[in-house]
């Protein structure tokens, strides 16, 4: 990636080599002759961390000196992945570390694999948070990320007989060399109990002063991970909270023989930070999820208020020096908690506290799916967070009263914008709470933002028409191009210049003329083939399937969900398989269908789709008549590291969600940046990608969001009629339904197929023929290498706008007001 003039100097290599050896000796306690690969990894990680510390301290001192505004990013997920290569690359030490280790007889590419993949997120939302943290550091924005230090991240996915099995994810088994435990940074978080009210001294007209008497206290302990920006420009802090019991171990109870009871309080408290996304299909699971959300929000707000008051005399200047971003509804309880702290703890009058809260908070919405806009039973909230429930009731009452004062009395409208849902059991609407308590609410793509205004927040938008704005998501090119695809990066730097690495948003466009040069297209295709060969080796190693790197790599990797329509892809796979079997001598384009993704533990249909994928894969891969013209692969345990291997090797990127349901997507951007062509609907950021890249360099198909909504509203959609009009689709559905891929259990997929036949909620059948035709266009272009690779180069060249630096700059200028 570096040019000849920027090769590391012998002195730099020698210095870093000695740093590694000192860490190996004095921090790990090992001799170089007896060190394991894990020992070497930890030594390199600690030596790298040392290089971050001075910049980290300098940045902190400078922020205090400037007395400027800080950004606080509250997110239940931070899908940070492996940090070694990321940190070395951003510090400009990657080549130095590689050479230093080589001189010690150690292979860097082997030891970096020793780092566990920190699965502290579920997908796009958590990965976005990680990208945003890196971009804030790169742009020099003083920021803290706040979340939970889960003992076990998202489950490790194992595939047993085609079924997903969830296993404990153990990223902390050997410690975490990147973090610093801050035992002195500790806050007590309360749950349960009751509230008493007393008149405020000397002010009979004021609201009563409320006192929350907890039934249980849990202590939050801070763990800090430095997050370094590109070229080491700045280092910010990711602060994650670990839960610990307030009381010490009950030795007397233990000695009295109550061995379980002695540790019960400890276990209950520590369960809060034990697992990311505990199943919430039970009341106990729902309570734990709510405890997690309040725990990290309460600790974070106490921490930032403490920091604010260390520098400033009053909380009344809070929005002047602090901007708090709520990443989805998970931290929405921050609205009520900030009000509680201001009113009950700092004695701020209610109206002033509300103005401070709204001016400080902003909220990012990530979904239009009603089930993903969290709601909590009122009974649970009253029991677990009684003071917050009082505050929410008061916010709601004053909100509705203010509307009536404006002569807004429509009962339907008032029910819609209320914080309390009354129709299906009384529940607190966290989306409405976040909306009302924030000065700015943003969507994450232009289409998603417009649909927010028209659907989930249509009535609130009518009342507050200036509150919703758009901030289309982005990705960090440092990880998803420079690190994930060094061979492509070298090619780009060779032709555009090293300045590309610092300004990809503008400089990538300079690649466009090279799309017309046959020699450049040839080299672009060569680096793709090399990445495909690496992925083919990984597939062989992990699932034992041999694939041809020269085949079209058709990739669909993301969380398994019905709206993301892995099922539509599977129907095409079966249709293609049947067509090849019917005409084995035909001129077929060899294709490898690659799937990966996790299903939520309690999401039965998604887990059934994984099983169907593996059943179809087994049948097709074992059929000699197909002759390697079609292979199907499901790679288990999809995570950031696996994505870094798959994305540079993809030829075709599947982004085929039901139009109107994908908020943005970021994998679509990562694939396009690496030169994959997109097949997809006009959904989420696909719309803006089509505008930037050009429709002629993508394969767009299917109904638009407006057409999907119109069909739903009209109630005229008949999936049966659609199937009847498509013999190809009917044959596929009957094959799956009748057990062609499940001979051991012929009825396994009956309910799944009947569901899309009778209801087709996600328009799988409705879009099937359009998808089939789009895939035919894919084959046609693949047969014309000049056209395919021209489009591939232009995908890379025109993706610069989708940088997370651009997204964060928009947040900073328009919402946080820090640039």
From TrEMBL:
E.C. code: 2.4.1.1
Modification type N6-(pyridoxal phosphate)lysine: residues: 670
The keyword Transferase is annotated on this UniProt entry: yes
Gene Ontology cellular-component terms listed: cytoplasm
GO process annotations (BP): glycogen catabolic process
Recorded superkingdom: Bacteria
PANTHER family: GLYCOGEN PHOSPHORYLASE (PTHR11468), GLYCOGEN PHOSPHORYLASE, LIVER FORM (PTHR11468:SF3)
Protein name, entry field: Alpha-1,4 glucan phosphorylase
Source organism of the structure: Stutzerimonas nitrititolerans
